[in-house]
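User: Can you help me understand a structure? I only have the sequence.
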Amino acid sequence: MKILIDKYGRKIDYLRISVTDRCNLRCIYCIPQFGVLQTREEDMLSIKEIVSFVKVASSHGIKKIKITGGEPLLRKDIVSLVSCIKEIDSITDISMTTNGVLLKKYASDLKKAGLKKLNISLDSLCSDKYKEITKIGKLKDVLTGIETAMELEFPQVKVNTVIIRDINFDEILDFVRFSTETGITVKFIEYMPTKNSLDGYAKKFVSADEMRFLCSEAYSLLPAVVDGNGPAKYYVIPGTNGTIGFISPLSCKFCSDCNRIRLTSDGRLLSCLYAQECVDIKDSLRKGPDIDEVTKLLYRAIVSKPASHSLTVEDKQMDFCSMMRIGG
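Assistant: Let's start by predicting it. Here is the structure, written out as tokens:
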């Protein structure tokens, strides 16, 4: 099997696939309240087209797949997609990031189809605050989804929590307790800037170091290794089943170890979350696909992968629509 190596010597073996830019929540830091122009149905990649690309990518070293959105469970064919990817022998890991609202409905079928890992986005454990953040979400739906996943004994369930000062900063230790009580790993993520970030973004930013310091004042933290595809630094809490992680895309960039590329729902390859350029592969996939042409486009995306993103707390380069379509 060939191996994808970018010009900085990084081995690329991880593909994140955004299967839709639609979502059933309206989180304040993700979707602008005035609405967005969504991708037309006919412009979205079909299951067949996605699987065709995964087959090409897997023959060149891609082994791990993360399905994202928007909200991936809004795609009615999502279970079939997981099942088709599972049939590709060289794919060793299939995971999904979801807001969990529809998880109770789909969890059993997803597990049977071959989904191994779940990352569930949850930014508050308070019903009122969760509603404030998501605008239309109900906390009980997500908690029921998490409970269902645990009952089904998914190999791995993690919670992703974006921390924003003056919004959910005061819940950090509540999430740590949630981890100790449930055994679910909680990952704290730095709030990323966009063109339409909340007013006063810099004042709302909380670094991973500050989060970790707060946690260490209340709990003993021991560094740990946790299976996963991402850059989180993990810690276990002795005497409990709790594990927490911290992801620091701004305060301590992990670009030198980045092993991923991204495919959007409308067929664009991005080598970096904040890439200014993309490689459009939709037409090539719809031609049959033309495997040689798709392969060339894949390598073009790898070659374009930057050494590092240049984003800082003061920057606001990405717009909401881009973040929704790329899937974070």
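Now, to help you interpret it: The chain has eleven helices and 14 strands. Residues 4-162+251-326 form a domain with the TIM Barrel fold (CATH 3.20.20.70). Let me know which part you'd like to focus on.
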